[in-house]
Amino acid sequence: MSCQSTLGSSAPPPWTIRHSSRIAQLGVKPRPGAQNTQRKPAPTPSTQTDADPNRAAADLLKELMQKRTDEPIIKFFEKGESGKIERLGDEDAFRESMGGVDDLKKELNQTFAANMRRTLSRFRNEGGLGALGINDVDSIAKDFEDKLGDASNPEDTLESLNAYIKDLESQFEARGFDVSQFDYKNHAATLGVIQATARVDPSQRKRHPPIPQIPEKVWSFNQRKRIVRLNTLLSRTTREMRRGEDVTAKTAQTVWKTYGAARQSLAKAWAHVPQDVWNLLWDILSLDDAKNPSRLTYLSLLARDMSEAKVALSPSQQLVTVEAMFVDGWEAKAIDNWKRCMSTLGDSGADTFKEFWELGVRMFCQQGDLVQGERAVNKLLERQLDPRILLPYIRSCATNPNAEPRIKAWDAYRRMRDLLGSSMGLEDYDQVISFFLTTGQTEYALQAFVDMMSSSTVELSGRDRLPSQIGNKFFFGKWLKRLIGAGDLDGAHSVFEFMRFKGIEAASIQVNGLIGAWQRSGGADNLERADKLAWQMINARVEFVENRRRLSTMEGPVRTVEVSVKSHTAAMPKATLETFSLLAENYRLRSLHGELAKLWDAFREAEISPDAFMMNQLLESHSQNGNIFEARQLYQTLVYDRQVKPDPYTFMALWKMLGANRLHNIAGDELVNETRITRETFAEMVRFASVFKPDGLDGQIARKILHTFRRLKDKIGIVVALQAFKAVFDFTPPEVLALEMMMETTSLAWETTQARQKLRLIKRKIDSHVETRQKSIGGSLTLDEMTQKQRGEEYSSYLQAAYMQEAGELANGQVSMVAKEMGVYDILARKGRG
């Protein structure tokens, strides 16, 4: 096949095709005509006689047709530029002839060397080499060429280049230059670092130890890729750390992934991983738990690898390993290892004394071993270390169901408080209070809260009644507010029940805060608790109203009679308007229209004056449920019979429930009726125009109004609404709203050519309208030159003119009639006269 192929067109050079992308990455451009590179081997007997191409071909065919008794012999030929066929010495010569490999290798190295010479020359001209005492550029370039001389392929070239750069960095570090400050993407910054360091006396330069690296030559090619990637990342991270930058969670995660990719290769020869590399990996991966949630997982596996590599763990690393073992679920094994290390890591003279015994406290308390936990606590307190180590012990004792450990929890709290003195902060108190509340020990929690709120100690134990300065709803209200704000809703509920047990009626506003917090949490259990407590308050309010009504019907004087049996439980706080509003909004959001109807019945029985918020929730609920007639009746009753003052949200609800915003098609008598109702709704809004001050008419309500009239094709209604916006609400439409109206859409689209063309046409019409108006008043302003208010007036004027033109010829007085229906005739008439 090889011989036959040489008789036809020359084959493409395989090496050039296969490796051209790698050469491009190295910055080497393919040599022109490289694919046609020909070799002229040393003359052979064949080449000396093959002067005639036809004769050479005949000889070749003759040799091919000869019968051989031994193994076949393959000979190689090539056709020169002149068309002459020449025989090659062997297969290697044939391959080189096809690809021009040697020439490409040589050119690749020459290109690298040339680039190096240019870079060095630039540094010399900028003064960078002089700062290092280097003047001979040629010797450095020659050294570089020698380093690359043996590279046989792009991979080897890159590897040689990488080794050369590392060698240069080592030389820089040996002279006291901080390589971590070098920025290879910013040559000017790197040059500045070099020059600044060169000005410092060599004896005064800060010398960093070499960056820890894993030897790369001992691994196979595929393994080396992962090792090089890990080395590069460790080098970059080390430089960042030496610059004073904190290790980020992303960096720790990236290092872990890169180490994981190289781990299988490293496991084949753990002995080649230096000790300082292990330490660097440990330092990076031991980023604190707040930023690095997987810290213990990382370090646990790293410790196992270090153990397999026969690397001795430092005392602090041993402690972290024990902790990681405990967290991973090997509690018994972790505690056994901790005990074995007691004589070394826990010795009074050890640097790890504090951390060792703190770890013991946490592990024993989590296991419920109070004896060993207390022993570990005492070891620390004997050295007068931080008394807050008692917190895990207090929690462990408090969670124990027996009485004796719970007493120990209280005693430990008092001990910690005495030791800390004035340095005991609010967070310390909050933790202790939380321990007691979550375990149902509300009296202990109250005593701790009193300690937190009082400068002096007030003893509550052994008292049947709480002191007046404590046993009141205002003092407990502070506690409830603090617990709710901290998100401890179960604790807040426990305090509320404790108040009732002690005969203290909580303020409704505080209980409403708990109900709202339960609703915001979104959990099914908390929503059920909120409903239950709110309805208990509502029933208490209804019962109070019934008793008041019954009392008012009695004749003659009323005498109070004391009963012998006294109830110590305080009354349930009575529901307020806020209680009903919380439930109404929650039921509307959850589409519980039946519950909302039940709530409205209870609201009327409770005889509470409603407000706009409550009304809005009911209107929204009726609208969502399709009960439009009931919603309008409710509005009329509350606003005109109960004197509830609507707000802007009320009118947004009224506009949303109109037929034009609910139905797809409206025609015939229904269209006439909906147009009438829409105009009446506008008149109602004008009647309560004062509720929109001082902020003015909201743009979304104005948008809803104009699009409602547009859907009804009520062009005169649009014109009157625009005039009323300016006269009554001091509002003018922005550009987007004007374009939406002319495009007859609520969503402007720019994607299609047709939409863009239509928008451009409308803009030209608006610009023409503005230009004509400006000429009529003697002005020359364009839209871009106008203020926002002036632009709004121009858009309003254009829309009015456009819709009046679309309306065509009108009956006499038709605009006035529409203005009267919309409640603005007198206002617009006054403006016109003015």
From TrEMBL:
Bias type Polar residues, positions: 34-51
Protein name as annotated: Pentatricopeptide repeat domain-containing protein
PANTHER family on file: PENTATRICOPEPTIDE REPEAT-CONTAINING PROTEIN 4, MITOCHONDRIAL-RELATED, RESPIRATORY COMPLEX I CHAPERONE (CIA84), PUTATIVE (AFU_ORTHOLOGUE AFUA_2G06020)-RELATED
Matches recorded under InterPro entries: TPR-like_helical_dom_sf
Gene3D superfamilies: Tetratricopeptide repeat domain
Sequence segments annotated as region (Disordered): 1-54
Superkingdom of this protein's organism: Eukaryota
One Gene Ontology molecular-function label: mRNA binding
